[in-house]
Amino acid sequence: MAEPIRVVVTGAAGQIAYSLLYMIARGEVFGKDQPLILHLLDIPPMVGVLEGVVMELADCALPLLRQVVPTTDPLVGFKDVSAAFLVGAMPRKEGMERKDLLSANVKIFKVQGEALDKVAKKEVKVLVVGNPANTNAFVCANYAPSIPRENFSAMTRLDQNRASAQIATKMGVPITSVNNIIIWGNHSSTQYPDAGQGKVLVNGQWKSIVEAVGDNAFLEGAFVETVQKRGAAVIAARKMSSAMSAAKAACDHMHDWWNGTAPGQFVSMGVFSDGSYGSPKDVIFSFPVEIKNKQWKIVGNLPISDFAKSKLILTGNELQEEKNEALSVLDS
Ligand code: NAX
């Protein structure tokens, strides 16, 4: 069996981590033959809860889990890690806009970027889940200059999974019969869920979603809105933000980064923009990507409708604004 790799989850005492740690430790991300040493990072008031999580992980009796390192020190948490799930942040509560969270969270991600820079493996793959995820990933990367920028990403996979689930329900097919739905831009209510390139398996044949659904008003209206507002709908119902589905999406994101995407299929990831599709450069923008040998590549030359173009501009502008706000918080 391979040597164990070190994987850190921040916000390890929180609700997303409660599902995520179990999924990772079962081997669902790095494979059933890859032993793990899990680092659990949280803040000092959560030490007691963290102890409980450590006890439960031990009691799960998981064969791949070789060691658990609970800590409140980022320099211990990030030491020699090959993969980092940055979940820890202040979660959005009912009625709260993501922008309200920005100034509190950019400071956290500066500290974590600096610690990653000092002690993590240089090839570490960093997935930011904590909101505002795109801008937090931007901040984190900027404070970790010795780690390639391509190694920082933000999670929009939950939005992709939500969008795929909407189409699967609409068409009455299993979720595995839907692929290549794109989330463009920010993980916020300006994101653009785009079924325009997507495919659905109907009666044994892959068809374009646009053709199979045959209802453009739905695809440009209710579908987009449902996905954009799904996070808020879960909060309204559960009085807490999405956790189980967020953990599953984080696993999907890192799994595909680690293992690659299937030929002809792409997934959505928030990554440093090169200006593709008219997006602003140097913000973390969600694109369709293909992954090989642990390297993502933005899928190029997809036909984009005028409707989609206008949505991409909107979400790009928001990311540019968030980036400017983050930089001004950090300067002050
Ligand atoms: P919880 O409040 O349950 O847990 C957050 C944990 O982070 C707490 O244990 C807290 O002590 C810890 N924490 C705070 N500051 C920290 C720091 N500096 N270092 C380490 N740990 C720290 O929130 P939870 O529901 O788990 O959500 C976590 C984050 O995920 C939130 O920012 C939330 O908004 C975000 N989400 C992102 C999603 C996405 O698709 N990108 C979807 C789900 C979720 O809303």
Characterise the protein shown here.
This is Malate dehydrogenase. Substrate binds at residues 92, 98, 131, 162. There is one protein chain. The chain has 332 residues and is of the alpha/beta class. It folds into 2 domains: 5-154, 3-Layer(aba) Sandwich (Rossmann fold); 157-321, Alpha-Beta Complex (L-2-Hydroxyisocaproate Dehydrogenase, Chain A, domain 2), CATH 3.90.110.10. Helices cover 43% and strands 20% of the residues. It is built from 12 helices and 14 strands. The protein has a 6-stranded parallel sheet with strand order 3-2-1-4-5-6. Helix 1 (15-25) crosses helix 11. It is globular. The termini are far apart. The mean pLDDT is 95. It binds ligand NAX. Residues 10-11, 13-17, 41-43, 46, 87-89, 91-92, 108, 129-131, 133, 155, 158, 187, 231, 241-243, 246 line the site of ligand NAX.
Whole-number total of structural domains: 2
Given the structure, what is the number of helices?
Answer: 12
Q: What's the architecture of the largest domain, going by CATH?
A: Alpha-Beta Complex
Shape: globular
How many β strands by DSSP? 14
CATH H-level superfamily title of the largest domain: Lactate dehydrogenase/glycoside hydrolase, family 4, C-terminal
The unique ligands bound to this protein are:
ligand NAX
Give helix and strand order, one letter per element, not per position: EHEHEHEHEHEHEEEEEHHHHHEEEH
Can you identify the CATH class of the largest domain?
A: Alpha Beta
- Which stretches are low in confidence, meaning pLDDT under 50 for 5 or more residues running? none
Strand content: 15-25%
CATH topology of the largest domain: L-2-Hydroxyisocaproate Dehydrogenase, Chain A, domain 2
Kindly report the spatial arrangement of strands forming the biggest sheet: 3-2-1-4-5-6
What is the average of the pLDDT values? Answer: 95
Largest sheet: 6 strands, parallel
User: Rg to the nearest angstrom?
Assistant: 19 Å
Percent helix: 40-55%
Pairing-aware structural class of the strands and helices?
alpha/beta
C-alpha termini separation: 50 Å
Domain Lactate/malate dehydrogenase N-terminal: 6-152
EC number: 1.1.1.37
GO molecular function, one term: L-malate dehydrogenase (NAD+) activity
Binding site for NAD(+): 42, 105, 129-131
